[in-house]
Amino acid sequence: MPANRIALVEGDIAVQHVDAIVNAANTSLLGGGGVDGAIHRAAGPELLAECRTLGGCPTGEAKITKGYRLPAKFVIHTPGPIWRGAPSPVGAVSTGEGSGVGGRDEDRLLANCYRNSLSLAVRHGVRAIAFPSISTGIYGFPIERASRIAVREVKAFLEKESGIEKVVFVCFSRGDFTVYQSALEEIANQ
Ligand code: APR
To answer: What is the pLDDT at residue 98?
Structure first.
């Protein structure tokens, strides 16, 4: 586990001094509330102007823009899945394709957000990247489940990719921080 390359902080992702911050966007990429709103407010109007040229982004995929007034050089925008599933054991086979009963589609799409954001970051020479807790706010994804998916995907990526030196999970509340701390401890030794 590249534990020394993963950090966990409580705070505002918009002020993080890293090469890229990840935005929990929506598929229009035209801004919103939550972390999306905070990033656009801090980056200034040029961010939205560049987002308008991107033509949106499908759930689970990622697109990159400049960071403008942010300390970060880049913003990587990735729309997370909206949680529809009734919680079931992580990885359980869904009983209905796309029915969301097992939450499997959401799990897969959320994992894609992390993997595609990291791949895009490497392609742009990003060494340090910060993630919010994607989909666990307005999109309602249970954070205990989402944090395990996030940590597992980041760990797997760092084990095969040396290009990324540091991944910071930025939690907006003490409660979220505690959940991610448990996820990191659980997965660190797997
Ligand atoms: N810094 C870090 N994390 C933040 C910040 C911030 N400034 N503001 C909110 N968060 C946290 C929330 O507490 C939550 O844990 O980001 C996580 C994701 O919550 P949302 O921002 O609601 O994102 P999400 O659940 O993925 O929903 C996306 O919300 O903002 C809209 O346009 C966005 O439609 C999209 C939807």
So the answer is: 41
Is the CB–ligand 1 distance for residue 30 below 6 Å?
no
Q: d(Cα 108, Cα 136) in Å, to the nearest integer? A: 15
Q: Is 134 in the pocket of ligand 1 (CB under 6 A)?
A: yes
Ligand 1 site, residue 133, Cβ cutoff 6 A? yes
Q: How far is the C-alpha of 45 from the C-alpha of 49, rounded, in Å?
A: 6
Q: Which two tokens stand for residue 67?
A: 């960071």
Dist CA 12 CA 88 (whole Å): 31
| pLDDT for 88 | 58
Question: What is the CA(125)–ligand 1 centre distance, in A?
Answer: 26
Q: With beta carbons less than 8 A apart as the criterion, state whether 151 and 130 touch.
A: no
Q: Domain boundaries in the chain?
A: 6-81+101-188
Kindly report the number of other CB atoms within 10 A of residue 114's CB atom: 25
Please list the rounded mean pLDDT of every run of 10 residues in the chain (190 residues).
88 98 98 98 98 98 98 98 77 47 80 98 98 98 97 97 96 98 89
| pLDDT score recorded for residue 2 | 76
Domain 6-81+101-188 has CATH 3.40.220.10: yes
Q: Is 172 in the pocket of ligand 1 (CB under 6 A)?
A: yes
